[in-house]
Amino acid sequence: MKLNRYAGYADFPGPVVTVVMDGMGIGPENESNGIYMAYTPQLDALKKEPLYTELKAHGTAVGMPSDDDMGNSEVGHNALGAGRIFSQGAMLVNEAIRSGFIFQGKAWKEILNRTSKGGTLHLLGMVSDGNVHSHIDHLYALLDRAAAENIRRVRVHGLLDGRDVGEKSGLSYFEPLEQKLADLSREGRDYRIASGGGRMVTTMDRYQADWSVVERGWQAHVLGEGRAFASATEAIRTYYAEDPDITDQYMESFVVQENGKPVGTIEDGDAVVLFNFRGDRAIEISRAFDENDFAEFDRKRVPHVFYAGMMQYDGDAGIPKNYLVEPPAIDRTLGEYLCASGITSFAISETQKFGHVTYFWNGNNSGYIDEKLEKYVEILSDRIAFDLRPWMKAAEITDQVIEAIHSGRYKFIRLNYANGDMVGHTGIPSAIRIAVATVDMCLGRLLKAVRQEQGVMVITADHGNADCMWTEKKGVRSPMVAHTINPVPFIIKDFSGKNGFSLAGVEKAGLSNIAATLCNLLGFEAPADYDPSLITLKQG
After folding, report:
1. pLDDT tens digits along 229-260
2. Calculated CA dihedral for residues 412, 417, 422, 427, nearest 10 degrees
3. Chain center to CA of 253
4. What DSSP string runs through 111-136?
5. I want to staple 462 with a disulfide (CB 3.0 to 4.6 A). Which of 12, 76, 169, 331 is the partner?
6. 32, 66, 73, 366: which is the annotated catalytic residue?
7. Is residue 95 domain-shared with residue 135, that is, in the same domain?
8. Measured between alpha carbons, how far is 248 from 258 in angstroms, rounded to an integer?
């Protein structure tokens, strides 16, 4: 896998530093754009550089089913690290449902085996059409197949989104879901919603940031412990009424009861399917079901169930053991090629995005490719609402990157600033502007260090978010907390003075073109099947 040298390339002493400004796309120049409204002298200057262009970071450019689908950090970093476009979770699930393969594998057959012996099928996941972590159509397909197979008892444990869709749109998904379950509850079938809660409070933690989120999910879904309501929609309406400022993603857990008892605890002999397709927020609850020696919290009661994910969320760690749809098989990543070519590298972010510069960048593989050549650093994220500390851990990340730059130990450095995305998801304009300004200030510090070491700095984003803080209809503004489908910037600032690079004029360029570009900046020809480099080397 060793890369070939790039003809005419002159070596330079400094590193190639790649900055991913998470959630910082290119939006319209108006007050709804948190990046335009923030103080960004570094970005303003960088956008005037000759090596500046814009890239697609959504839809088919990152492996999603259509160009109506927003990008996300998972598929974005897959594209950045893979150098090619792979069909991603949503598309893979769509294809498996369309072909029927999802129902032909051993996982579905074991579900039928369990339910034929009186076990309940539990469907757990996020109920929305955001298409980032899940899609309600996939839940409906599982429900329809369960009814067609005459599975007698199904319980849905539904998590509210409010992040990749409207922040208070929960009823628009749960009302039709309750009706569908009622329609399927005939001919002896009993299909109901059993529990739920907001995604940031219940079940969907990631990167081990806050295991209490998963614990609350376990208590509601498995044990039937939590605030009781007669239905999911009653729970949602009650929470809205009690706190008009609450949004779906932060809604407390709830349990549906009938005659004083929960309608859907998870018991021995049952089958459980997590129907989310994205991995990062699915791994921890999967571990809680799969691991016999699980110790992150006291599960109190551990039913003997058959547990399957929609996909396998971590291939290296084998999480979960059983799954319905094969994940994208991403091979020959940039990281593998660079390690094979002897390039030392340094990757860093805070907890919220650490997995993106490691696991997702490396093709959904955990751990080091070559520990002798690589160093990964995680800065622990704050456990507080991000609008309260919109600077997050950007300064701490920058400190460590500057140290790595000056150390001379690493030729390739990559980092992710989470601010634009994580604070963007709060929908609070004042915090978003601070988050963006923080990233800009840190860019200034990095540029100085890279210049001192005669290196090259690459700046881009994985998708948009902070570039649209609200939408407006008939004079009424609604917070925009989801990702955008705006393009993202791509900037090269070359302080090496060794090579004359120019833009190659690649048409319809996207994030997957960056890997080949990085190969060239590091002095190598890109692999032949990588999407083409965004630059050419001026000869002579």
Report:
1. 999 999 999 999 999 999 999 999 999 999 99
2. -130
3. 22
4. HHHHHHTTPPEEEEEE-SS-SSS--H
5. 76
6. 73
7. yes
8. 24
Contact 23, 394 (CB under 8 A): no
Residue that terminates a domain, selected from 274, 297, 325:
325
Q: Give Cα 348 to chain centroid, integer Å.
A: 17
Q: Any residues with CB less than 8 A from the CB of 437 and at least 6 apart, and which?
A: 38, 39, 40
Show the CA angle centred on residue 55, arms to residues 466 and 367, nearest 5°.
Answer: 80
- Region of residue 493 (left: phi > 0; alpha: psi -120 to 50; beta: else): beta
Task: Please state which of the ranges 168-172, 360-364, 536-540 shows the lowest mean pLDDT.
Answer: 536-540
Structural domain range at position 435: 16-83+329-537
Pair 156, 177 in one domain: yes
One domain, residues 72 and 202: no
Q: What is the CATH number of the domain that holds 349?
A: 3.40.720.10
Q: How many domains does the chain have?
A: 2
Q: Distance (Å, rounded) from C-alpha 103 to C-alpha 191? A: 19
Mean pLDDT of 183-196: 98
Cβ neighbours of 508 (radius 10 Å): 9
**What is the identity of the amino acid at 170?**
G
Q: What value does the CA radius of gyration of the chain take, rounded to a whole number of Å?
A: 24
If asked whether residues 421 and 392 sit together in one domain, one would say: yes
The tens digit of pLDDT for each residue in 419-464 reads: 999 999 999 999 999 999 999 999 999 999 999 999 999 999 999 9
Let me know if residue 11 belongs to a domain: no
295 and 210 inside one domain: yes
> What is the mean pLDDT of the segment spanning 463-468?
98
- Clarify whether residues 342 and 320 are in a common domain: no
Q: 458 - beta bridge partners? A: 18, 492
Does the annotation count 478 as an active-site position? Answer: no
Q: Note the pLDDT of residue 123.
A: 99
**Where a domain ends, among 298, 325, 352?**
325
Report field, pTM of the whole predicted structure over 0.85: no
Residue 473's pLDDT is 86
